[in-house]
Amino acid sequence: MAESFYAVSSAGGGLRLERVTGRGEQQVAAERDVLLELNARVHEAARRFEGVEAEQDPWDFTCECGAPDCRAHVSLTLAEYEALRAEDRLVVAPGHQMPA
Ligand SMILES: [Zn+2]
C-alpha cells in the first residue's frame, strides 16, 4: 500500500488537512486492522470446513507485526488462534517484533 493519507491539523488556528506521506502511527494502525481482518477471515473460512480439528489442523495466518515488508505466514491451529484473540494478543511470526 503506497497510498498517502490525510491528517487533520489544528496548528495555527483553523483546522486544515495535511497530506502525510510518512508512515505515521495512524497508517500503521490502519494496516494492522487490515491484517487482523484478513486473519479473522481465514479463521472464519476455516471454521466453515467440515471435519476441521480445531486443536490439530494448522492454518496459514498472516503475521500481524505490521512491518511494511512483512509477508510472513504463521501456522496456527484454530484453537491457538482463538486463544491469542481471547487474550487480545496478535499473531506474530517467530523473531518478529510485537508491535507496541
Ligand atoms: Zn511480521
What does this structure look like?
There is one protein chain. The chain is of the alpha+beta class and 100 residues long. The protein has one domain (24-100). 33% of the residues lie in helices and 20% in strands. It contains 2 helices and 4 strands, in the order ββαββα. The chain has a two-stranded antiparallel ribbon with strand order 1-2. The structure holds zinc ion.
Protein traits:
100 residues, 4 strands, two-stranded antiparallel ribbon, two-stranded antiparallel sheet, alpha+beta, binds zinc ion, 20% strand, elongated
Bound compounds: zinc ion
Strand fraction: 15-25%
**Alpha-carbon distance between the two ends:** 21 Å
Mean pLDDT over the full residue set: 83
Helix and strand content put the structural class at alpha+beta
Total strands: the figure is: 4
Instruction: Please state how the strands of the largest beta sheet are arranged side by side.
Output: 1-2
Q: Structurally, how many domains make up the residues? A: 1
Number of helices: 2
Biggest β-sheet: count, sense, barrel? Answer: 2 strands, antiparallel
Order of helices and strands: EEHEEH
In short:
This protein is of the alpha+beta class and 100 residues long. Helices cover 33% and strands 20% of the residues. It has one domain (24-100).
Topology:
Blueprint (H helix, E strand, L loop, with lengths): L4 E5 L6 E5 L4 H24 L9 E5 L10 E5 H9 L14
Antiparallel strand pairs: 1-2, 3-4
Bound molecules: zinc ion (ZN).
